[in-house]
Design brief:
The structure is a homotetramer of 345-residue chains. Chain A is α/β, with parallel strands linked by helices and 345 residues long. Chain A contains 11 helices and 14 strands.
């Protein structure tokens, strides 16, 4: 590492998003990991918890309160929501923080309470937080101290829809997002429905009927763009795969106009790739990468179209997005360390 | 086998639906397989082509023209479409036939030509054919000589929707079917996108925009029920699993009324199971069986609901359905040989 | 169910082997389930715990102590080891019991303590127990009150090796069993390494170096056949699949003689299928069934051969084997309810 | 790309190893792809054949004879064997070539004919070729014009065994390699047994009994080290996963000594990681990377041990290895572009 590297700490390094951060930073040319926390696995080496990282020279996992954060330039916080609030509140108030949890995504505290079931415990921090969907909040993120990364499902849906809502080329009251998510999005937690024997060779909807918490993000962001309340219909499904989110978005509008709108909006974006009209993406083609592929197809029913967006939930959907934000916050090139090609097959 | 067994031939026994027919008939108490055809594998034993069937005492695979069909009571035709037309035309005209191909599903010959790209070569047979969605055509199937089994995707969508269209409890112009299909539905054909290395850990839409041929069945059936032209929006997706179809159907209507309508319509159906309101099915719970699980959930947006239907594409979606029809055509109990419990995990 | 059905209870019905017992008994013509236990899920319906069984009319899950076992003819005990000992000790001493746990497999109590780490708590019951590898203990099982089913790995290895040891056609000191096991053999327990995200797209050895408990069974059985102490080398691997065990057994001997020995030994066995010389089995061809496929191939190194056995760990490896034993204990046809064809693909 | 980049051509870019080369070179700091060939897909863009590479600015696929190789510094040849011989024979004789096929691996032309079934057509080139197992042929590779990369299975077995044979710490006549290989090793070819529906949820041995062609490499290399003929027993298995090879190697010797020998031999190797004694590797921890993890465990039978090696067949097993060799041939740092962390989960 050069002397000009920025010094990084990762809180919650024993989860999948924590490990993905470490994987990406490992080949980032200007970041150096100097502290890793994992409460239940404190004292262990990262290479024992995640043997795929055993070739790296990494600090031993510590409890958060044991970390020495002096000289740290930026902290990634990959902790469960609710925990994040209290942990970040206790950090030095001038330390840059990229939070991967849901804690600071919703600007409206009442909305937070509605979706997460209890009052926010750090309302002042919430006011300070910038929503971390990089492509749409660049200026704010560059200036931010605390960035709240977008949820993986919420990011996928927004990449498909934001320019269309902005340009008003679709009917804002007729948006349906049918989303297919791989299992790593649920984390490394021990739940029966995440077992291989349960999930492999099976797939099913969950949190249906408008109950998934990422709807809070859709509501906030789409309404802000439209200048009025927008409510989408959203059904996530769990798919027997490890990585990937594919959102099939049903909209009303002209397919060609929709495609043009997206293609123009993302023409200069390094990670958002709009496929030729009529081509649709697959999760396999973005696996392990920070790319999002977006396709548009019209329908035999006039005035209807489908927009499909695919990304890797652990990369562009969380840890890659987080690193993209950190690059901006640290004054680096936005794409630094993130241009890894997808891994296929 | 008892002396009262019916004698069965399976044409096209070297494909997945052919093998599934043999699997099911193997434990059917009143059917006996006396002839099997497979042109490219003629001369081989079924147990060589499908080693999972090697314990069975089965006739050697023959070319269709070599088969001795004298004394055969019923033929299952599991051939590719287009081939079926010519093969069935050449069969004795009093032989009962259950066709698993798409050739005789569309009553309107112009619709057939539109969806399949060439004129129908056996229009007289088409007139005779009965559409094989058992639960809705029982009387006709009992009396039929030629039954055209429903396509697997088309069956799944119809189980979710027919009673709702019939009862007019949903908006008939606002139906979206987002379908997730396992790979065995594509058959045992050698295509790059069916390779394990391509499909595993990836999923994607295909035949989007209203181009999938099963739309011809939706159009025909839903329009017939409604008494006017109905056009649904339909996007199938290929999922990394071997068996299963899950249709997530977006409708406008009252969730509770929709649930009640389905529950009442299927109250006496042995294979169509409506889950309690708010519970949604998974493909893993119907695998290898003839059951279809159906769930309903309302949405946070008033007047919207989601109906989800799951079945095994090779069983209830094709070969199980075919056997169910054959039971009726042969004057047997409809469920005979079909009450096998799903295989989970 | 006919009046002549035998009445069955399943203890530990909320695990995979319990569910598999219920699946198999569901189409068994002469067994009726009258009681189901599951301590942590007592009060729930089986169809809620295992929705693939929701079409069955089953008793509600109860705590073991709540069960009414009067009139029960046979109990399947699908509990964790150690628990089985105490539960079976408390059952009426004339009740027939098929135990699927490891508790009563080892006749030598010292060996039990060595492999399971604590003294056996029911030594008298152990004396009474018959080892449940059906094909080799038929007479004893028919007369038994308590049968201890063989472990799934142990069964697979024994099917490959017992006739060869008996006939002394292989070198008894040079046996290596490299075994590949699907994940359902580890049960429905919440362990990190059983998560889909951990296991899918990965495979690895476990319990290597002679530490796997099923070695106790190999030691006992092979030594008994040989009349002297036999110790095999055994390395199990966890494979990203739900069902299946494949044992690749490296032996010294003449390939043709080995094949002949196995083919003759199993010529009349309904479930043990010896493939033609040189053909090797796959787990996919026995999935969901009670069959075991066995193949033999010689090696380019003279005097060496490989025997490969494949079965479904939940069926022939546990619940199917258990039912096969129960059929014998109840005076029924051994194959009753067990001739279901494998489910492929 | 800097002006000091080396200019690279990839022949056979439409297969998996070709695509993997492009993926790796995409982030290599000193290589630039200037030509890509693919006969059957000539005229197409690489991003159409492999959409995961669509973000890259790559030359259009051409037929080999259309390629302009002037100014090219090195060619990767990822063609099928037999084809490679004739293609490489026609290349300018001063052009550096890294061949990923089997054509130039066997120094003995009679051995080539034995394993590949026909005489070698370029015996002079064969004499010139250097065997490309980087860690053991570094000096020769640095000086070579033509390097023949090691087969993926052969590499895995050799990493586990070479230092042990060299140090004579194991019995050279008692080596068994039980290998588990993911499906991408079979390439993108259209074969029935590579279909998802065939392979998923199934696993099985293939090319058993000493018939797999990679045995030619084991024979050549192990015999050369030992100074006498060595013949190992080798059984590969196809596993339902996309990437990965895991070799379970049964040896006679002292476990601790074996571990020490490997640990010392690989102490300075950047990509060969010997795990602590008793720990065994998993394919999931090397996926997408150039690392090979190696573990050793003793056995309860004295004098026996198991060595387990895991690598990614497409990376360290072929394209990563090829790039490692190219780095040496071009005078670059051996690890350049290859230190990507594995992708897990």
């Amino acid at each position: 590492m050069s002397d000009t590297s920025c010094r990084i700490a990762v809180l919650g390094a024993s989860g999948y998003t924590g490990a993905e951060l470490v994987r990406l930073i490992a080949t980032h040319p200007a970041l150096e990991i100097v502290a890793l926390s994992a409460d239940r696995k404190a004292g262990q080496e990262m290479g024992a918890v995640f043997p795929h990282l055993r070739h790296l020279d990494l600090p031993t996992l510590q409890r958060i309160e044991e970390l020495d954060l002096s000289g740290v330039d930026l902290v990634f916080c990959a902790l469960p929501h609710a925990t994040s609030q209290s942990v970040i509140s206790a950090l030095p108030s001038d330390l840059k923080v990229v939070d991967l949890s849901a804690d600071f995504r919703l600007r409206n505290l009442a909305a937070y309470e509605t979706w997460y079931g209890k009052p926010h415990s750090a309302p002042d921090l919430q006011k300070e937080a910038v929503y971390g969907l990089t492509e749409f909040y660049r200026a704010e993120i560059r200036a931010a101290r605390l960035v709240a990364c977008t949820g993986c499902n919420a990011a996928t849906g927004q990449f498909a829809l934001r320019p269309l809502i902005e340009a008003e080329v679709i009917d804002l009251d007729e948006i349906i997002i049918d989303l297919k998510a791989a299992v790593s999005g649920a984390g490394r937690s021990l739940k029966e429905n995440l077992l291989h024997a349960e999930l492999s060779e099976g797939y099913h909807p969950y949190a249906a009927g408008g109950t998934h918490r990422h709807l809070g993000e859709f509501d906030q962001e789409f309404s802000a763009i439209a200048g009025r309340e927008i409510r989408v219909q959203f059904t996530p499904h769990l798919i027997p795969a490890n990585r990937g989110i594919l959102a099939t978005v049903y909209v009303r509008g002209d397919g060609a106009q929709i495609h043009t709108t997206l293609a123009q909006a993302y023409a200069e974006e390094p990670f958002l790739q709009v496929l030729p009209m009529g081509e649709l993406p697959s999760t396999r083609h973005v696996r392990g990468s920070n790319f999002c592929h977006i396709g548009v197809v019209g329908d035999r029913i006039a005035g209807r179209a489908v927009v499909v967006a695919a990304l890797d939930n652990l990369t562009k959907g969380s840890s890659g997005q987080a690193l993209q934000n950190a690059n901006l916050m640290l004054g680096m090139e936005e794409t630094m360390g993130l241009v890894l090609a997808p891994v296929f097959p």
